[in-house]
Amino acid sequence: MKTKATAGIAAGIVLVLGSGCSSANKPTNENFTNTLNAYYQDHNDCLFPHGHTFPYEVAPGAAAKEDKKEMDSLTDAGMLTRLEDRDMHVDRYTLNAAGNRFAPRFCYGHRQVTGIESFTPPAPHNGFTETTVTYHYAMMDVPMWANTDEVKVAFPQVGKSLGATPTDQATLATVGAGWQVPQ
């Protein structure tokens, strides 16, 4: 008789403790979408996450080919002015009035998660419970210059982000206070 009573009490404790867990800690598409949207509301996607110092100089040569392509695309989009210094053999890019509004990082909007495609089973990692979420998103508040073909080609991430159905992954973690994007 005692074993049945003990088992009943144990089951009751498990039920109470289980129901006491916050629903924000559950690995659901809704929780992941809410967490990611809250995060991206304050975290824009930018061409230069750490910023660029202007004026910016690009010397000719194969090593600078990508730099020149990127800077020329921003020039074509109306953000920069290019001056070719023939004596020093460099192209010097300076900000114009429009470019000053977006420099030094040139942010081009923020993500709005539109759906969760999948997530890995939550598992302990470095003291947290973590999962990797694959999601679909749309870019919000995109400035006109970012939508130019030149910028999309020079910065492939912009082209991907502004495509029809972009996807990405993010690691989310929880320690019992809901899911978060680790910083």
Written account of the structure:
The chain has 2 domains: 90 residues, no CATH class; 47 residues, no CATH class. By secondary structure, it is an alpha+beta fold. The strands form 2 sheets. Strands 4, 5, 6 and 7 form a 4-stranded antiparallel β-sheet that branches. The chain has a 3-stranded antiparallel β-sheet with strand order 1-3-2. The chain is 34% helix and 27% strand. The longest helix is centred in the first third of the chain and has 19 residues. The N terminus is likely disordered. The protein has 6 helices and 7 strands. A hairpin with a 4-residue loop joins β2 and β3.
Set out the fold topology:
Layout: H1 2-20, H2 29-41, E1 56-58, H3 65-76, E2 80-85, E3 90-95, H4 97-102, E4 110-119, E5 123-125, E6 128-140, H5 149-154, H6 156-161, E7 167-174
Antiparallel strand pairs: 1-3, 2-3, 4-6, 5-6, 6-7
Q: How far apart are the first and last residues' alpha carbons, in Å?
A: 53 Å
Sum up the overall morphology in one term: elongated
Q: Biggest sheet, in brief?
A: 4 strands, antiparallel
Mean pLDDT: 88
Number of domains: 2
| Contiguous helical run count | 6
